[in-house]
Design brief:
mainly beta, 4-stranded antiparallel sheet
Amino acid sequence: MAVIFASDTTNTPYFIPEFKTQYVINILFDDKQTLLVGTRNGYYTFSIRKSEKGNMDYSIMQPINELKGTFVNQIYKDHQSNIWISTANSGVFKTKNNQIIENISIANGLPAADILGTFQDREGNYWFGTTDGVSKLISFENYSFSYENKPVPGYHLVARDRRNRLWLWDGANLYCAIRNKNQ
């Protein structure tokens, strides 16, 4: 991993040696401009305190003990600025200020422990792409995981466009779900 300093004529990279042996899966900036880093070996925060060409003062932390050594598939920021950390074997973690608020896993309804991605739609529903299908969370008070009352195998990427169509990718096929206007 590297930070690139831009100047008038060239870009100068500054390599971050702490990540040299890490396999970085996902990166995302939070609202405080801290870089959130998901790796095969856990969840990290990277904060730059001071930077100038050739010199950088930064800190790297693993702020959530429960995620040390965990394979992180995705880091996602929802509409309320919560950070969701999708993992390969422990479900998905909803966090705020580096504190776990919720852990959603097989124990409370997900069809698989391997969460490939998280997405929040315009209505506030959460969608989780798992190795065994897509799950939809309608409410935190009453977990409800379904997509048209059937498991849909293999979906792991979910997005909604401006026309309110839901797009699903299963690794081989792209599907578009158009919302019925009568609903």
